[in-house]
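Field log, afternoon session.

UNIT: design team B
ACTIVITY: writing a sequence onto a fixed backbone
BACKBONE:
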């Protein structure tokens, strides 16, 4: 299917310069070209997160991978952006909209080792690399005898540190490995979402543009949207927003849509993994929950309720339940804007 988009110049897609960012932007560019018949060119942009080598636990939560790109978009240097959704603060800037969330990749984390030994069987003192506060807490729970090494760097450099023996394992997102097509003799262990839930939005992309963009281009971008993905990540980001803890907090939220319902697993961890507060709930988001909590704008459903409003409200409700059960004592709350 193609859309009616008339223009004499290519569509400009702003993207971070990393290999992963350009790979995932390339996938979106190809899909948009197929949809519109108009060429899409990548516009590489350097974000603060690409130049600041401090630990993510120190600088995360403030949109360090998105702010510079958004400035370029608002300045008219590109027509739209592609972000890793888990890197985006929950507050949406004035003048910008998320036009689409394409079909989500595998949301799981994977452990990369030389010999395939599972994370929980690593010997005492084994060095496990990750810069994510959530993953650090989860490693402390799964492999309490291991030593966690706070690392930054691209996928290739992290894999190289395992291959060289500097680290015994690293933890990466399955989606990143898939999008890069990473081929390595190293072994991988997929971590199940039931016991190892991941970051809100992990595996999903956000297609962002200006709210005054050419309506035909906006319609084309919206053609990339996957409703189930958007519904799930809206719930997850609602939890993050309600916790008010920043996108690098030691928390996890994963939602999965199945028919008329959505199942949400969400956990808040103490930084050392010693304590956790979690919920595992299933709600009929496409039915009763929407009728109770929809915005009534008639935009998305025949009965006048907005499923994305209801999804966000579900996330906010779960966050309040987590806080009531003691999560407030585990996280350092900060604005995720």
């Amino acid at each position: 299917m193609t859309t009616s988009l008339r223009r004499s110049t290519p569509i400009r897609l702003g993207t971070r310069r990393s290999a992963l960012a350009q790979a995932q932007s390339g996938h979106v560019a190809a899909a948009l070209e197929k949809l519109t018949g108009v060429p899409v060119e990548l516009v590489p942009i350097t974000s603060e997160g690409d130049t600041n080598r401090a630990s993510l636990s120190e600088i995360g939560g403030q949109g360090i991978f998105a702010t510079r790109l958004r400035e370029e978009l608002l300045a008219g240097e590109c027509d739209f952006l592609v972000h890793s959704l888990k890197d985006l603060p929950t507050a949406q800037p004035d003048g910008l909209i998320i036009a689409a969330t394409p079909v989500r990749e595998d949301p799981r984390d994977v452990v990369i080792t030389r010999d395939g030994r599972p994370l929980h069987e690593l010997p005492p003192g084994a060095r496990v690399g990750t810069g994510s506060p959530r993953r650090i807490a989860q490693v402390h729970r799964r492999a309490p005898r291991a030593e966690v090494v706070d690392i930054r760097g691209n996928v290739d450099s992290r894999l190289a540190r395992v291959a060289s023996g500097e680290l015994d394992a690293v933890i990466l997102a399955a989606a990143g490995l898939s999008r890069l097509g990473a081929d390595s003799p190293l072994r991988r262990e997929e971590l199940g979402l039931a016991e190892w839930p991941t970051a809100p939005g992990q595996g999903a992309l956000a297609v962002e543009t200006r709210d005054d963009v050419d309506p035909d281009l906006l319609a084309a971008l919206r053609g990339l949207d996957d409703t189930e993905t958007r519904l799930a990540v809206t719930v997850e980001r609602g939890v993050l927003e309600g916790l008010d803890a920043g996108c690098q907090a030691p928390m996890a939220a994963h939602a999965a849509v199945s028919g008329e319902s959505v199942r949400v697993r969400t956990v808040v961890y103490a930084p050392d993994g010693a304590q956790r507060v979690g919920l595992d709930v299933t709600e009929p988001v496409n039915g009763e929950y929407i009728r109770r909590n929809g915005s009534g704008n008639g935009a998305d459903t025949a009965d006048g309720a907005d499923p994305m409003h209801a999804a966000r409200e579900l996330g906010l409700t779960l966050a309040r339940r987590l806080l009531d059960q003691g999560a407030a004592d585990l996280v350092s709350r900060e604005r995720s804007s």
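LOG NOTE: The first helix runs from residue 19 to 36.
NEXT ACTIVITY: expression trials, pending approval
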